[in-house]
């Protein structure tokens, strides 16, 4: 059978101790008492007495502290965002477009560099104006010892052929063939080839300039433009 302890019932609750006057407690308690000095106030006009926290306030504050914020408690780990989402938020088509743009710019740059390099090589090899020359035996009083000399000149976009039969300047002849079209017509190189299309033993003159071809027939010790029938024969012979 439980027996009530009268001394235990006389003990005041803990909440009542918080509001117990300090002066009254010290008056009833024997021995020297402690006097708390209020802290210095920054504002002398304030009349509110300073609040001094006691041991009960500290204990109740510690009870309200979250369990993971208590000293010695393990700190929960925060979930990290996956690295793939934080790296970039751009659409994949953006990178594809940038790659295509870089490829086009690179192709244009390479093309310009190649064209510039070809122009420099043509200038070193053919000069300015572009001039091509060769020797060939075409049956106009020439021989292997004295072949005829030919020069193909691009004179400001106009093709001019100079013929020196047997290498004799006194017998020089000039043939104005055609004109070259295009923005860089004056820089096109004109070359000559000699092909015996009619199988007469006398080679004819094939003129090439910028991918275009012009033909002169060797007849009567000179060169002339071909007739329509000869043009068809020449085209069949060149396509073989």
- Mean pLDDT over the residues: 77
What coarse outline follows from CA principal-axis ratios? elongated
* Alpha carbon gap, first and last residue: 131 Å
Reported for the largest beta sheet, the result is: 4 strands, antiparallel
Q: What is the CATH first-level class name of the domain at 129-239? A: Mainly Beta
**Proportion of residues in helical segments:** 25-40%
Please tell me the CATH architecture of the domain at 129-239 by its name: Beta Barrel
In words, what does this structure look like?
It is a single chain. The protein has 240 residues and is α+β, with helices and mostly antiparallel strands. Among the domains are: 95-125; 129-239, Lipocalin (Beta Barrel). The chain is 32% helix and 21% strand. The chain contains seven helices and eight strands, in the order ααααααββββββββα. The strands form two sheets. A four-stranded antiparallel sheet has the order 1-2-3-4, with no helix packed on it. Strand 7 (212-219) and strand 8 form a beta hairpin. The N and C termini lie far apart (131 Å).
